Amino acid sequence: MCWQLLSPEEQEKCGQNIGIDLMSAKISELQSEILKRTEEIESLNTTLARRSDELSASEAKVKESNDKIEVDRKCIQDQANLIKRFKRKLLLVSKVNCNNFCYDTC
Questions:
Q1: DSSP helix/strand/coil, 85
Q2: Are 30 and 5 spatial neighbours (Cβ–Cβ below 8 Å)?
Q3: Which of 70, 63, 43, 66 is nearest to 55 (CA)?
Q4: 14-51 pLDDT tens trace
Q5: What region, left, alpha or beta, does residue 15 occupy, with left being phi > 0 and alpha being psi -120 to 50 degrees?
Q6: CA neighbours within 13 Å on the CB side: how many for 24?
Q7: Rounded CA gap, 83 and 70, in Å?
Q8: SS3 49
Q9: How far is it between the farthest Cα atoms of the chain?
Q10: What's the whole-model pTM score?
């Protein structure tokens, strides 16, 4: 089992003589690698949590903007309908005044 922990270069270097010093160094190297990977995982988890919060905030802003757009669209539609009604009334008043003017002059 100790032999399997060694890289091919290390196996070639030491031959069949696996000493305590070599195994101690290898275990220390593996522990350092585990510690480095653990820190890397924690860093990635922190980044993931931060990005997830940013995404949630962005989604909330998008929803808020879409709601505002819908309210604005309804307001514009109401204003357009009001303008159409005023145009119709103005046209009717203009026709009535024109007809009255034509009857008065004739």
A1: helix
A2: yes
A3: 63
A4: 656 666 776 777 788 889 999 999 999 999 999 999 99
A5: left
A6: 3
A7: 20
A8: helix
A9: 129
A10: 0.54
